[in-house]
Design goal:
This protein is 38% helix and 27% strand. It has 881 residues and is α+β, with helices and mostly antiparallel strands. Strands 1, 2, 5, 6, 7, 8, 9, 10 and 11 form a 9-stranded mixed β-sheet that branches. A 6-stranded antiparallel β-barrel has the order 15-18-22-21-20-24. Helix 7 (254-264) crosses helix 8 (272-293), helix 9 packs across helix 11 (345-384) and helix 23 (833-840) packs across helix 24. The radius of gyration is 34 Å and the shape is globular. The termini are far apart.
Amino acid sequence: MDSQDVRRIFLEFFAARGHRVVPSSPLILPSDPTLLFANAGMNQFKDVFRGREKRPYSRAASSQKCLRVSGKHNDLEEVGRTPRHHTFFEMLGNFSFGDYFKQEAIVWAWELVTEHFRIDPERLCATVFEGDANFPGDEEAAEIWRREVGLPADRVIALSRKDNFWQMGDTGPAGPCSELHYDMRPGGDAAATPATDPDRFLEIWNLVFMQYDLQPGGGSEKLPAPCVDTGAGLERLTAVLSGVRSNYDTDLFQPLIGALAAEAGIQYGRQEASDVSLRVIADHLRAITMLVCEGVIPGPEKRGSVLRRILRRALRHGRLLSLPAPFLYRHLEQVVEVLGPTFPDLREHLPVAQKVVRREEERFERTLADGFEQLEERIAQVLAAGERVFPGEEAFVLESERGLPLDLLRDALDERRLRLDEEGYRRARRRHVETSRVPGKEGARVESLEGLESWTGRGSRFVGYTSERSEDVPVLALFAGGRPVSALEEGAEGDVLLETTPFYAESGGQVGDRGRLTSPGARVVVDDCRSPLSGVVLHRVRVESGRLAVGDRVLAEVDPGGRMGARRHHTATHLLHAALRRVLGSHVKQAGSLVAPGRLRFDFSHYEGVAGDDLEAIEAFVNEAVMADHPVETREMPLEQALESGAIAFFGDRYGEQVRVVQIDEVSTELCGGTHVARTGEIGPVRILSERGVAAGVRRIEAVAGPPALAAAAADRRLLTEIGRLLGAGGEELLPALTRRLEKLRRLQKDLDALQLQLARGESREARTAVAVGGLTVIARRVEGLDRGQRRDLADSLRQQDPHAVVVLGAADGGKAALLVALGKQAAERLDARKVIRALAPRVGGGGGGRPDLAEAGGKRPEGVDEALAAAPGAVGELLA
């Protein structure tokens, strides 16, 4: 069977047994910012397993996109070297949310594998949890394998907690596992097991039985509704069903490997070293394609850094095969040919993905040159200090921030007989992994509110879409100092849980509403509103007067001005998103937003700055939609139906099975729980204030709508009036007058620079001391008042006058020292400017580098400049000797 058959048969099997076939979530889970990437099939069901979210089905099946390249799931170094390790892969899985349990899961797994996939039962064995001091052995699962399935007892093997027990974290759902293993060498040692011979037995399916709830501080309780979470890797299952030993020999990889081998002019299967490189590139191309098509751009932070590392690792293996960069971008199409039928959006995003990858490939070539230059400078400093060990943390910086591959760095160190501080490198890498983890959305504030989870789904029904005030609303709970309280006294701060609320809780970028709660005995200010758990809305309050108690009934009123401002800006954000996709391309995806009463901020994925003409077109598109006064319609529907209709999901929102769709005529359709205007005409004028980059591949637009936009226009008008007064011009004459004034200033600055340089040259000719050293002329001179470019110009002028010149210039620049060494043509044949600068730089407390004929250094000791200049002839003499 090929991969399409395997995926189809798996999903059809479970659909016929009452499972809802759920589409794969994105690799970047919009509802779970605690994960960099989806790494298991159960990720999108995490809150269902925890009981925080309800679905209209209790059985599900999926083929989930996964990426494992960071944290404890990091097999990057093994990719390409083993038959089964990958960065991107698909996980087939079936799930039960308190429905069926071990009996059905085990029997169905056996039925699918032996009857539908037709794997020889004699080549299968099962493992179960053997038990430990905390949990009993899973005899129930072992008995089902023996009694119901008919596996001989010697092929039902008990393994340790390390191998056959799963837990979501230190607390929460956990339970024993039962795995199916395929014997790749039948007839071997009868005593061999998956524990004793992992190279012989291949795990093809893992069944997780969630039956415990791990408690804080230790111990566990039984889950009231046990669940099932299974996973079968599509790649390894396809390998077994294709009759091959390696995942890379399946239809998922062979088209890629074949195209790469043809371009490299080699044949796959001839040499292990080149085979490894071909496999690495093929694997990484799949991950690169999936990530870029989801809007991830190579960069220095979090997800972008993971993508950059994968991409550059593929490029390094391309260099080993003598593939001329750029080459990766050309092979994205083969990935789309293989995976496009399953993930059709790949085809839509392919053109932009090719541009992004090509730009990064070209940048890497430049980065290599810069990285090697920095490495050379640092090696010189280490040697000058008499050290033989290169700092591991600096090696990691060169690798992670400068893109210099570690193996190339090691080669350079070996040439200089230097050793790498391996422990320091590993320490820096561990620290980077820890800081790269995305902090949980449910922060410490939620965890500190004792008993809050008991209110999940029981309170805070939101009624604010149709009204900004609710009367006679019961107070369900109060919290202060992290604990439930019966009342909040005058002057106190705390959190209030109401039975119903018109207050919008911060979500999807829209800030929480502000307003008031009023009871017969209290006046309370609401400063913020958040929803830390599903169905729980907390109002952050200050008791202005009186006393608020549990059971009181209040009038809840949202600040109408703030709500209207938020509605304007939120609807404007939807129009802005649509405009960006229309003008820049459908690859644009939201990467974060802020919607406040007075402004909006919209972050989006894009690989370059937005040109001025495009920015004008984006603003014009938005304002045309405003003036068209389109109706803004909202309706609820199942998530799958909404996505099929073309609705766009906003970053960071948490979606249940039923979702709210906001449609603005034919302009925009998005999933959104925020508050909006009824017609676009209510937004008023929209003005873009700025556009800039905030991270690699992420741009940010800030804008205002309605009264703030009018205020911004008035402020601009006042500014232009004042500029006109200073220039003595106005109206259409303002720009020509400003242009003339700037041109005059540029001419004056140019004349001033020329005079300074001429003066410096004259002083150098009059005051320089030329010392003959070994047939070369060393000219050492202190120059002040020149910038770096002017110092270079002066040095060029001096060395052109004498081909045997060794020009050494020094200056105290901004409280720091600056040194420059330039060699005439004949001098450059006998001397290396970098070695001269390295000999002098320690005298100013710094280091430097550059080219063989021109090198520079900086230092923290400007008082050492004269000392360095005086030492120049001696340093040249020593180097010549």
